[in-house]
Amino acid sequence: MDPILFDKDQDYTREAEILKVLGHPIRLKIIAGLSSQSCNVKKIWECLGLPQATVSQHLALLKNKGIIEGKRDGVEVHYSVVSERARQLVNCLFDMSGCASKH
Questions:
Q1: Element spanning 62, H or E
Q2: What pLDDT was estimated at residue 1?
Q3: 73: β partners
Q4: In what helix (H) or strand (E) does residue 66 lie, and over which residues does it extend?
Q5: Nearest alpha carbon to residue 44 among 80, 71, 17
Q6: One digit per residue, pLDDT tens: the chain, 103 residues?
Q7: Whose CA is closest to 47, among 34, 35, 60, 57?
Q8: Which residues contact 59 (CB under 8 A, 6 or more apart)?
Q9: Which residues are CB-neighbours of 65 under 8 A, at least 6 positions away?
Q10: What gap in Å lies between CA 88 and CA 103, rounded to an integer?
Q11: Which residues contact 35 (CB under 8 A, 6 or more apart)?
Q12: CA distances from 80 to 9, 35, 72, 74 (A)
């Protein structure tokens, strides 16, 4: 059996932070949904069947961690995933587009 190789020079801090944030099922669902298209908060909470306040709290955390961003369009804010690493991790987890890219 081949030994396991660990890359001692690789810093996985960002990936670990992303995984901590995505460790909640609601936030994971939000990122999975936003990975394919941007969406406003009303559509997100309607699709998830959750109260607006709950969804807003999760969006705020994702935004504060630099995983999503909101762009204002009149009175609406459209959210999208801006962390390519978060998108890759979620896509890999759900095999949405494979796990081809390592970094």
A1: helix 52-64
A2: 65
A3: 76
A4: none
A5: 80
A6: 667 677 777 788 888 999 999 999 999 999 999 988 999 999 999 999 999 999 999 999 999 999 999 999 899 999 999 999 999 889 888 876 555 544 4
A7: 34
A8: 30, 41, 44, 68, 70, 79
A9: 17, 18, 21
A10: 9
A11: 81, 87, 90, 91, 96
A12: 31, 7, 12, 16
Find where tokens 């009175």 sit.
75
Q: Report the half-sphere exposure of 88 (CA within 13 A, side-chain side).
A: 10
**Domains recognised in the chain with CATH numbers:** 17-94 (1.10.10.10)
Predicted confidence at residue 64, as pLDDT, reads 96
The encoded tokens of residue 35 equal: 């990975």
Tokens of 43: 């559509």
Phi, psi of 40 (to 5 degrees): -90, 165
Q: In this structure, which amino acid lies at residue 43?
A: K
Which amino acid is located at 59 in the chain? L
